[in-house]
Amino acid sequence: MTKLAARDYAVFALIVAALFVFLLVVGNFGNLLQPFSVEAIRINTLYQFIYISGSAVGALFGGALIFIVYKFREKGGK
Amino acid sequence: MEKSRMVEITTIAGAIILFAVIAVSSWAVLTELEEDRPADITVKVVGQQFAWQFIYPDGTVDAVLRVKAGQTVRLEMTSRDVIHSFYINDFGVKKDVVPGRTNVLYITPLVPGKYLIQCAEFCGQGHYSMFTWLEVTP
Q1: A11 Cβ partners below 8 Å, 6+ apart?
Q2: Which of A68, B65, B93, B99 is the most buried (most CB within 10 A)?
Q3: Are B54 and B65 in contact (CB under 8 A)?
């Protein structure tokens, strides 16, 4: 079994962070629409929270997938 | 404990906590939006194929909803024929308008302007034309 080095963890963290930032920028940090009413402000705040936490989870899983695909790729010749 | 087991437990626990937080905060907002509260004005809304009608407290009937910015408006909605849905996209609110019952929706517009009100429930051949405006004055 391949042991992960400190550098691997750093790369994984970097991928997750990059993916998280990407998702936040693409989704305008959860600010979907300009709110025009008190109710819309409450809904938007909730949406923002869900978007940011969803992005964090997505980044974690997506980042893990990218990292695993790269780290444990077929290197050939064996 | 084995490292992989720890990661597994952390993932499951993290997901449960996150879902719980989302559920509680969503429930809080939904409850807040749905609960009865004092309103500055109550307007009766009548949906019918294929138009909206607004009846103000003084008995005036209008095809356009006119309110002032900052006013909390209580909309008491019913239908004369089939099921409609009162939808203001800019305010993020939508409520079914059902014949034989009165559904209540609160809105508190903040920004003066003209906002589209649409029927969001297919109600017949003229459904596409069932829209009007919400005019918010300063």
Answers
A1: A67
A2: B65
A3: yes
pLDDT in tens, A39-63: 999 999 999 999 999 999 999 999 9
Domain spans of chain B?
1-35, 41-137
What single letter denotes the amino acid at residue B60? Answer: T
Of the candidates B29, B33, B115, the beta carbon closest to that of A36 is on B115
Whether chain B has a CB inside 8 Å of the CB on A49: the answer is yes
What is the CATH topology of the domain spanning B41-137?
Immunoglobulin-like (2.60.40)
Angle between helices A38-71 and B3-34 (to 10 degrees): 160
Residue A34 has pLDDT above 90, yes or no: no
Q: How far apart are the C-alpha atoms of B11 and B21, rounded to whole Å? A: 15
B15 touches chain A (CB under 8 A): yes
Stated pTM of the model: 0.80
